[in-house]
Amino acid sequence: MRILLVGEYSNLHNSLKEGLQKNGHEVILLGSGDAFKKFPVDINVRGKYVEDLFLPNAFRQLLFRFFKFDIAYLETYLRVRYSLQKLGQFDVIQLINEYPFKTPYFLERKLVTILRKMTSKLVILGCGDDYLYLKNRQKLPYHPMDALRGKQNFPWSERYLTKKHKHFHQWIFEQKDLLITTDLDYHTIYKEENLPDYFGLIPNPVNLDKLGTVPFPEINGKIIIFHGINRSNYYKKGNDLFDAALQKIQAEFGEKVEMITAESLPYEEYIMKYDSAHIVLDQAYALDQGYNALEAMAKGKVVFTGAGTEFCTYYNIPINSVAIHTIPTVENITENLKKMLKNPEKLIKISENAKRFITENHDYVKVAQDYVKAWESIKI
Fold first, then answer.
1. Could you count the other beta carbons within 10 Å of the beta carbon of residue 380?
2. How far is CA 247 from CA 130, 145, 229, 234, 240, in A?
């Protein structure tokens, strides 16, 4: 197959690409690198000329002040158009999200229309914010938009619930041939929508070969906790709750615990930063693990993330056996951290379980095969 993957938020499409290539497929990844994360892509369509050079960026800022239009989006649009003209036809084109380029809607429609003509199979992933997920978020046990109502605004997420985005959502859903979700937060909602082209959940692929084998760090009387922060998602991921819990832990355990905090790092730096840690704090509002959590689990870290009843039922495993389910309260996080710090032998057992779980359910070569089966289910 000849496959075009569009967009990258988390290393999902990079890992899928590597798995597909292992299975003998030709794959091109087109995207922007996702801001500071700088994910690798084959074709980078970020508006780097307008964003990075002083004079163009000064003109951009001035234009935005008066007309509320960011010409960096126009550069992205032109870069995508130019790139697509040279690529030819694909057996499958898969979008990371229903709004993959994040340009103004009139430009986004033009780009998706071009993509639609380049393939007989256009696939959309339920990944990142989207209309269906946010509109039905009350079906989830908790969501930061509701938990923090009145305390914190989420303007980017709220954009997906506007009338303009709803119209775009309806339009792009008419263009696609298949929907796939990548974790239980989305699957819980999508499966109840009775969408005729919803394939179901395919777990995120993790490139175990690339991550390598990382031995669990010796404890030596001190447990190391890693807290990675993306400032733009600070409240959305529950980083404020982790920070508050860590203050309590530091006060009680003192030198028996070491904290590593990393803020808004490029992806390659981020995954190396937590190698020495025993515990990784990921997020507090999820049913399932995101990409950072999965890769940390693959390295044998004890991850505080989404791993509750729905997750354990789906994978038929005991609660807190492969990761620590994180309920969004300071008390819950603090109590679970105390249990781990007082019983370090549990850390070693969960580390072993986590690595085994990722190998059995998220191996990138096997997951890539599942994607191919999903794409082959599309009737042309």
1. 5
2. 34, 25, 16, 17, 11
Per-residue pLDDT, averaged over 333-349, amounts to: 95
Res. 93 pLDDT band, cuts 50 70 90: very high
Q: Which long-range contacts (CB under 8 A, 24 or more apart) does 334-342 make?
A: 334/245, 334/248, 334/249, 336/304, 337/225, 337/245, 337/246, 337/249, 337/279, 337/304, 338/249, 338/252, 340/223, 340/279, 340/302, 341/223, 341/249, 341/253, 341/256, 341/257
Q: Which class is domain 2-205+363-376?
A: alpha beta
Length of the chain: 380
Residue 35 pLDDT greater than 70, yes or no: no
Pairing of strands 92-95, 43-44: unpaired
Say whether pLDDT at 253 is over 70.
yes
Give dist(CA 37, CA 270) in Å, integer: 9
**CB of 349 within 8 A of CB of 191?**
no
Structural fold of domain 209-361 = Rossmann fold (3.40.50)
CA 96 to chain centre: 10
CB 341 within 8 A of CB 253: yes
Cα Dmax for the chain: 63
The whole-number pLDDT of residue 151 equals 81
- pLDDT, one tens digit per residue, over 116-148 is 999 999 999 998 899 999 999 999 999 999 988
Prediction pTM value = 0.91
Listed in order, the ranges of the chain carrying CATH 3.40.50.2000 are: 2-205+363-376, 209-361
**Which tops the pLDDT comparison, 270 or 249?**
249
